[in-house]
Amino acid sequence: MVSRLSLHRLLHMVLLSPLEVLLLVGSGGFSFIGAHRLDPKQAGLHCLTWNFRATKLEAKGEFITAFCRIVGSLQPHLFRDIQLVNLPTNLDLSTLDQHHSLESLLSPSGESKVEETSIATLVAAGAPGATESYRPLTLREEEDIRQFLDELSVDSVQRNATELTEHLQKQLADVEGTNIHTIMASEAQVMKLMSTLDVAIEQADQMVQRMADYHQFLADVEEAMSTLHDRDQLSQVTVDNRGALLNLLEQLVTRLTLDPKYVHALLEVKLDQPADIIRCTEAAHYLNGLLHAKPTPGEEHLQAVGEQAVELKRLRDSFATELAKKVNNSVIAFSRQLNFVVNVGSVGAATAEAPDSASQAGGARATLTASTAIRNATDLYKAQREELIQLAPLVGVWLQTNRKDIYTELKREYAKQMYQFFRHQTLDLFHRGIQSISTVVRPQKTSKLSLVDIVDDLLNKLCQLVDTEEQFITQFFDMQQKTSAPSVYKTLDDVGSLTAIMSNLFRDLESDTANFITGCEQILPILVMPMLVAFSRHTESDIQTSSSSTEKTVSSREPTWFSSQYMVRMIMTSKRAFNRHIERMIQSFKESKPSKRSRCGVLQIVRDYVEFAERSISVFSRSTRLVDLERAHGELVRTMMTQLEQIASQSVKTPREVVQLENYHRLNDIFRRLKLAGMEEYQQEAKSRYARALQEYTKNSMGRPLEKLATFFEGVNAALAAGVRPEVIQYQFAFSKQELQKVIREYPGREVKRGLENLCKKVEKHLSEEGNLFQVVWRSIQAQFFEQCEQFNNLIAECYPDSGIALEFTIDDLQAYFTDIARSR
Prior knowledge:
Elements: H1 4-14, E1 19-25, E2 30-36, H2 40-43, E3 48-52, H3 57-74, H4 76-79, E4 83-84, H5 102-106, H6 111-116, H7 119-125, H8 139-151, H9 155-159, H10 161-185, H11 187-256, H12 260-268, H13 274-291, H14 303-345, H15 349-352, H16 372-388, H17 392-402, H18 404-440, H19 451-476, H20 498-505, H21 509-523, H22 528-546, H23 561-591, H24 604-619, H25 626-650, H26 656-674, H27 680-702, H28 707-722, H29 726-729, H30 737-745, H31 749-766, H32 774-799, H33 811-824
Parallel strand pairs: 1-4
Antiparallel strand pairs: 1-2, 2-3
Helix pairs in contact: 1-10, 12-13, 13-14, 13-17, 14-16, 14-17, 14-18, 17-18, 18-19, 18-20, 18-21, 19-22, 21-23, 22-23, 23-25, 24-25, 24-26, 25-26, 26-27, 27-32, 31-33
Transmembrane segments: 12-33
Organism: Opisthorchis felineus
GO biological process, one term: exocytosis
């Protein structure tokens, strides 16, 4: 039996070159046939065969398994071509792995481990050496192996593994001996090499020591350079800090130092000449710049800075006090001058200036002429405002910014001083407005002045006065109206906002305007309408001007906040007055009673409404407040028509239908002229009631001249309506021919004419001359009379044919009767 070690060595040596292997397995042994892959000529000539024998079946299986595993590891491309014949049934080669290393396959200790471990698992896990165990032969190794196999010419050696092993061991021993001799021969050279290495090591140690010295020297130099750099940076920082400190000190000195000329101007406070005002303004603005300059951090710790700041504030307070004192003195002086001019000029004004407003009636528009005193005061007021407005930068800007308390007190004192002057102005305007309106509405005057134009002129002058003052306050005190400002001031001392100071100056304006409206109501109640229209037109004009409208408005002034709010409140006041007037008219309508001594004619409530409507047509023709007018007309007409029906039913002297006829006729006329969209319903109702009253009055009147005939033929119509045939009517006793002839003989032509004349007199007695409705009523009676007589003739022809019965008058006779009666009137 061949040993396992020599067998493995032999197989390793044999299988290093590519082979085509055929393994024949018999019952007692097997044969391995291998052919060297040399060149094509030698492929068929040389066929070497090795025979292996095993004493046990287990050894045989181990050999086959080990051989196939080695072939699969070293030559994987040949492994699948191995053919096994008569393979024992207990051998399973399907689990063999082809990627084991040769060392693990030849190692007895690792053989079982190799059999249990799968190389595929190691490859998947990334184990080292799993794929690197196989290394193909190089060309040199392959050539050496071929040369070695060619030298094995002895067949026995080639076939016997033991001999082959011994041969290889012999060659190895020769090679090792040769190597030992070679090494012993080179001992002197080795000693020399060792000595050279010792010298090299010593010189390397010296070089390392020198490098360490150099490194220490460089470290010392680096430390010295770092120290020098730090000293240089420190010097630079010191220089920079000193420069920054110097600049800071210069800035502090510049910011806290006031030019001597400015100090002199602030201490002297001369405001007499424009040049002095300019100089004080420049000094004040420069001081304001110093006081409100952005502070430098940390300067509050410097005593000199604090002292200088206190000195600047002291100078500011001194200038503010002196400035407010001089401005206040100027305002007081101006106020006294204005009041003096107004009071002195008003002496004897009633006799010297009382021109009749009718003398101004040549123009289409009214003009309120102010008194001489007011005109002089107004001119003086304009000159004073031009002088004060030069101080606006000092008062409105500087004083408001630096001393809010003094600024507020100055505004309060200004409002207190100027209040009386503006009160005189407004009272004078209202007084002259009342005079002009009284002249216009005087019955014996035929003035061409318009009430709306007078009120427009009054409001123009009033709003111009208010707007001029508000614009001056806005500029002088540098105040702007806030959108959230209240519409009324809290107290008389409240001057914090523009609305508040204006309300202080004109605190009696609304009450004076209300008194003016009340005075106009006392002169003529219906004057509330032009008041409402005038205030509404001015408010609409303000809205159009504020929105930059290009349309022509009532005035060319620029509206201000206070005047706009004043106009809105006055619209509400005039609207309440207008509502009061409507309520008084409604109450007077409800209290009206029919006249017991004379004919009613056109009722007083209708006359009052017609006057109101005619005035409203002229007043509201240029107004957009038609909604208020339509509402007022609706309330008045509803109450008036209800009361008219009640008066008509209670009338004693005049029939109810005549009262309705004359009054609804007058209402129809005024409704047509109003042309209000909201009055169409009332117009249709009045027209319907008028027609119904005319029809009823005509019908009632027609029953008197031919009363028995009308009664007879009413019975005939009733019988026909009951189903009696026309030809049978004459056979009834009540409607026989004899009865009909008897009734007809009672109405000859002269009697009919006399009856019509009496009817005409009664109609004239019922109708009033003011109503002028006789022709209308008489034509209606004539048409109704003709229709009635025609109906009588038709019934005679239908119910009494061939009887020869006819009325004793014809239609032509009736026409002649009516013509004669008309001529007699």
